[in-house]
Design brief:
This protein is an alpha+beta fold and 209 residues long. The protein has helices spanning 2-24, 118-123, 125-128; strands spanning 27-28, 41-53, 58-64, 67-73, 84-94, 97-109, 131-142, 146-150, 157-161, 177-187, 192-196, 203-206. The protein contains 3 helices and 12 strands. A 5-stranded mixed β-barrel has the order 2-3-4-6-5. Strands 7-8-9-11-10 form a 5-stranded mixed barrel.
Length: 209
């Protein structure tokens, strides 16, 4: 009889440990569900639209559709504007805003793996505003501080600003087909947009058609 009692207790113990393990498992949620998971560990994904790096911490804002969320981490995420990420962490409220204290930030897709057509940038400027983008086009004109690229049909064009020390000599031959990796900015007041080469991730590459 005692043997059965020990067996029963062992089963209850295993079930209890399983229950505790299930409670500690993070729940995968969307950003707009965040308020229902205060104090819980969650997994949430989105696009990096803002990043502030400090000495011992990092602050991100990720966006998914029309919803955005603040991410705080004590480690470098090695992310860039426009990267698609998945974040594991604990939900907290800080100064009246929801945030996730990150345990892990995983990059699902780098911003430069997808080439975006010029028409898509032009017609969805608010969506891509403040992100790194990868765009292909044809060099139309070159000026001292910027150049203009256009799509193959000539229906859409955009200015690409580059630093004064940026080498554009390879672009002055036959005005080639190029790939531009840069920071996209949209001005709502003037309805104008541009690409800006700002760091080592950015640049212009001539495509061999």
């Amino acid at each position: 009889m005692r043997r059965y009692a020990y067996l029963l207790l062992s089963c209850f113990g295993i079930l209890f440990l399983y229950f505790l393990a299930m409670l500690s498992q993070p729940t995968e949620i969307s950003i707009d569900e965040i308020e229902h998971f205060e104090g819980k560990r969650v997994i949430v994904d989105g696009i990096v639209v803002k990043k502030i790096s400090l000495e011992e911490s990092e602050s991100l804002i990720i966006q998914n559709g029309n919803s955005s969320l603040h991410i705080f981490s004590t480690f470098p995420s090695h992310t860039g504007y426009g990267d698609e990420v998945k974040v594991l962490g604990k939900v907290e409220k800080y100064k009246g805003q929801w945030e996730v204290i990150a345990e892990e930030i995983r990059i699902i897709k780098k911003w430069d793996t997808k080439s975006i057509p010029l028409w898509e940038l032009a017609e969805n400027a608010m969506k891509y505003n403040g992100r790194n983008v990868n765009v292909t086009g044809y060099v139309k004109k070159i000026y001292s501080k910027y150049l203009i690229i256009t799509d193959e049909e000539g229906n859409y064009e955009i200015k690409v600003f580059y630093p004064s020390d940026y080498n554009i000599s390879m672009l002055k031959k036959n005005y080639p087909h190029v790939c531009v990796k840069a920071f996209f900015q949209y001005d709502e007041k003037s309805f104008s947009f541009s690409l800006n080469i700002k760091n080592e991730e950015h640049g212009i590459e001539v495509l061999n058609d």
